[in-house]
Design a protein that fits this description.
Layout (H helix, E strand, L loop, with lengths): L2 H6 L9 H20 L6 H24 L2 H23 L7 H26 L7
Helix pairs in contact: 2-3, 2-5, 3-4, 4-5
Length: 132
């Protein structure tokens, strides 16, 4: 096996976290949605905010993981959770410009990311996860 083949097999350690994989996938979908949203001048600010807030989710997970301490990881997961909530809100404000099915799908993805982040934060803090 040559060097190039070995380099292709390197897996990001964050890939083991479903919330990270889902957040990265959501960001790609936001970029797709931005093409539709960008067609109307009224929704261009929504595009900017959606790209920023959704990109902030995996970016904060990456930064927290890279810090190397449990407390900092928890802190950045909490920030990522806030960015996810903001992303959900920007999708709510884009109802005039995107199909309802797209908004529902994206908000469901965001809700799943938030639930995974909250569960992980609670676990890392040593608190039991409440069942509702």
């Amino acid at each position: 096996m040559d060097r190039q083949q070995r380099e292709c097999k390197v897996v990001d350690p964050l890939a083991k976290y479903p919330f990270y994989v889902k957040a990265s996938s959501l960001y790609e979908k936001v970029l797709d949605d931005s093409e539709t949203l960008g067609r109307d001048y009224r929704s261009r600010e929504i595009v900017r905010q959606l790209v920023r807030s959704s990109g902030s989710i995996p970016a904060n997970i990456e930064e927290g993981y890279g810090r190397g301490t449990r407390n900092e990881f928890v802190y950045f997961l909490t920030v990522a959770c806030g960015s996810a909530r903001e992303t959900r809100g920007w999708y709510e404000r884009s109802r005039r410009f995107l199909l309802p099915a797209v908004i529902e799908e994206r908000q469901a993805a965001v809700d799943e990311i938030i639930a995974l982040l909250v569960s992980t934060i609670r676990t890392l803090k040593g608190r039991p996860v409440s069942k509702k």
